[in-house]
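User: Please predict the structure of the protein below. I'd like the answer in structure-token form so I can feed it into my own downstream comparison script.

Assistant: Understood. Taking the following sequence of 379 residues as input:
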Amino acid sequence: MSTTFDYIVLGTGGFGSSAVYHLARRGARVLGLEQFGRAHDQGSSHGETRVIRKAYFEHADYVPLLMRAYELWRQLEQDCRRPLYHEVGLVLGGLPDSEVITGAEIAASRHELTIENLTAAEARQRFPAYAIPEEFVAVYEPEAGYLEVEACVEAHLSAAEAAGAALQLDEPVQSWDTDGRTVRVRTAKTDYEAAGLVITAGAWSGKLLAELNIPLTILRKVLLWYATPQTVYDVQEGNPCFFFETDGGEFYGFPRINGMVKMAEHSGGDVVASPESLDRELRSDDQIPVTRFINALMPGLPDQPAKHGVCMYTKTPDSHFIVDHHPEHCNVVLGAGFSGHGFKFTSSIGEALADLAADGRTDLPIGFLSLSRPSLTSD
């Protein structure tokens, strides 16, 4: 295999697989370097499902990126000839002045999105799987749903290879450098050169971008699956994905798939010193917040999970992404700090990263994700 390319992408998980795909579709000679295997379970982009939604309570500025993401997911489904996105709806619940409710309403109003506002009684009647407290209100988004996460990564990789991209798996990157014209990447096996570099290394981004001192925090996050025979949790019974903001934290989950309801706590999480030190075993205290949530809002589920998984959030101080050029090297682009809510954007952010690498700019509205924003540069 040649060791010279137009572009090299470091990390081919959710965002990297998409960047390789979009660069390869342009006809560029692209190399994707991955320290693990295809659609692996060692980072952040695994666990069967991820929620996708448009009424984005985190910030309304994300909505245009989501609109493009939806278009690109449908395009990728056509490329791979299989479903990736399942439009099953999403119910959001919380106090009337909670971030999840007010943020979703602002995003929907600003971008003319379809949502339904429900009282607690209306939500309980419509979605009987959830014992929604009387003081809560709910927002239902019919165009939300879930993505099959590993299948999405594999679809991007396969389509990229079909377009001519090269993938080198199980090949850790040791270092990279550039003279402004040529990028050199050294792996455990050999050296590669390219005109441009895209860094999408997830929890390993801090090490590969150490000279920038980006304030990234790695959090350990536990995913739990609960086996249940109850059909009230099925899509066919009208049960959607869910996200609730409670006094005990923020919790999200999915309809019953293959006999199990998957859920997790979005808030909280233990800080991890390095991704290599991540504890992947289920600890005795991992279930406590979710068990309390289940007892309060989903009492029909069992006390013990049937299985678990562990992934990582790589968080910025403001929990917003970083999508930008390297401040010192115009031929290096980085996507990092996706803060546990990024996967749904991988189709459109991958396109933006390809735009930045190939054209130096993008029409997608990513200005608010700049590396130079005050929350990343202030002491």
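That's the full token string. The mean pLDDT is 97.
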